[in-house]
Specification:
mainly alpha, 94 residues, rod-shaped, 0% strand
Length: 94
C-alpha cells in the first residue's frame, strides 16, 4: 500500500490549518475590543467591521479545514489499521 502521497497531503493540510490559526491569532491582537458608536472615535467603525469580517472568514475556513483534516486523518488511520489487520490474518507456510 502506497501511503506516502496521502500522508504528505494530510501533513500539508495540517500546516495550512496551523497557519490559519496563527493568522487568526495575529488578527486578534489587532482587534479593538471597545465598540465605538459615536463621537470622535466613530471613524473607527468601518475598520472594526472590516477586521471582524476578516476574522469571521478565517474562523470559518479554519473550522472547516480542521474538520476535513480530522476526518481525512481518521480515514487514513482506519485504512492503515485494516491493511495491517489483513496482513496479520494471512498465514504463510514456508
Amino acid at each position: 500500500m502506497q501511503v506516502g502521497f496521502y500522508v504528505i497531503s494530510w501533513a500539508l493540510l495540517a500546516v495550512v490549518v496551523a497557519v490559519l490559526a496563527v493568522y487568526r491569532l495575529s488578527l486578534g491582537h489587532h482587534e479593538d475590543v471597545m465598540v465605538h458608536l459615536t463621537g470622535p472615535e466613530a471613524g473607527l467603525i468601518p475598520e472594526q467591521t472590516h477586521l471582524a469580517t476578516r476574522m469571521r472568514k478565517v474562523e470559518v475556513w479554519g473550522q472547516t479545514l480542521t474538520v476535513i483534516m480530522a476526518v481525512y486523518g481518521l480515514t487514513l488511520l482506519a485504512i492503515w489499521a485494516y491493511h495491517v489487520w489483513q496482513q496479520g490474518n494471512q498465514v504463510s507456510f514456508h
